[in-house]
Amino acid sequence: MTVLAIVFVIFYVLPNLHIPLIILILNGYITNWNNILAYW
User: Fold this and answer.
1) Cα dist from 28 to 9, 12, whole Å
2) Which of 10, 11, 13, 24 has the most CB atoms around its CB within 10 Å?
3) Where do transmembrane segments lie in this chain (predicted)?
4) Tens-of-pLDDT digits for all 40 residues of the chain?
5) What's the chain look like in SS3?
6) 31/12 Cα distance (integer angstroms)
7) Are 18 and 11 in contact (CB under 8 A)?
């Protein structure tokens, strides 16, 4: 449900900002993966 809500907000509520939001989310995942790999 949370994923569907996020998709709904990104593509329907904020249609003009969905690209920057996706970029920010991807950047967040990349930084998280870098932190996780740094521990290993």
Assistant:
1) 18, 22
2) 10
3) 6-30
4) 688 888 877 777 666 656 776 788 888 888 888 887 787 7
5) CHHHHHHHHHHHHCCCCHHHHHHHHHHHHHHHHHHHHHHC
6) 27
7) yes
pLDDT of 14: 67
> CA torsion angle for 3, 25, 23, 17 (degrees, to 10)?
60
Residue 17, pLDDT score: 59
Residue in the block written with tokens 């996706």: 22
HSE at residue 32, side-chain half, CA atoms within 13 A, is 6
What are the residue boundaries of the structural domains of the chain, listed by start? 16-40
